[in-house]
Amino acid sequence: MTPFELHEPASIQEAIGLIDAHDTSMRAIAGGTALMLMMKAGVFRPTRLVSLRRLDGGFGRIAPCAGGGLAIGAMTPLAAIERSPEVMRAAPVITRTMRRLSNIRVRNVATVGGSLAHGDPHMDLPPVLIVLGAQVRTIGPAGERTIAVADLFAGYFATVLANNELIAEVQVPAQDATRAAYLKVTTGSAEDWPALGVAAAIEVEDGTVKSARLALGSATEKAVRLKAAEETLTGAAIDDKALLRAGEAAADEVECISDVRGSAAYKRELLRVYVGRAIRQALASGASS
Questions:
Q1: Long-range contacts of the stretch 20-23 (C-beta < 8 A, 24+)
Q2: Under CATH, what is the fold of the domain 179-284?
Q3: Is the pLDDT of residue 287 over 70?
Q4: Residue 1: its pLDDT value, please?
Q5: Secondary element (H or E) of residue 204
Q6: pLDDT band at 187 (very low <50, low <70, confident <90, very high)
Q7: Domain 62-172, what architecture?
Q8: Closest Cα partner for 150 from 263, 230, 208, 270?
Q9: How far apart are CA 28 and CA 18, in angstroms?
Q10: In terms of pTM, does the model score above 0.85?
């Protein structure tokens, strides 16, 4: 690795001040599980890294919010989220997802804010947070703003964040009667990078779908909502025909990409099947799960 400066500020404002908005060789580092691999491979050669591990202000906390929501500090390790009783109560689908997200060594170090800011389309968590209606609260030189996770990703390894804008918190709203599930398909071990990941959050009333949120990760350049598939489900009774329509709509509305985990055609066929499976698994789970 080439030499670089390392700073460990105590406040988020100090951290922001150490990063040039226009110099992409300067970057904040949280857990560093992905960034260090990029540096070792020579893909990223920083001139300055700003470590966020010493930040004060509760950036590693998990706290329930009024009404049943949840606030997760950006520096919270993924393993802490996995073990959190607050997360299990408010959104158990996140807990279940964590158990097959990479391995425990990575989860002990990687942080939720860092993983989202990295913008890797193969991550398991973004589709889940999208269907839960989660947002991120960010802090930059111009102040704070709130961004829906569905709007956070701009493309392959790209987000809408400015270079000197940091995620401070992930906010998950109350799920009420919503039932949620996440299914992933891997070509390796169960915790491997997925070839495809589908999340579903469904609310049913009087036997028909009151609301449906579906999201896809890994098969596309960024995690995306499956809005056309959602529209086929709203007001419908859940049966094999409805699930088939939703799967076909999902396969038609996105542009799948080929990579080492599968061809675009393979992922499209997986999507046709796994939309229905994710919906059925969501409905089989308890409310707010």
A1: 20/163, 20/164, 21/141, 21/162, 21/163, 21/164, 22/163, 23/47, 23/163
A2: Enolase-like; domain 1 (3.30.390)
A3: no
A4: 67
A5: strand 194-205
A6: confident
A7: 2-Layer Sandwich (3.30)
A8: 230
A9: 9
A10: yes
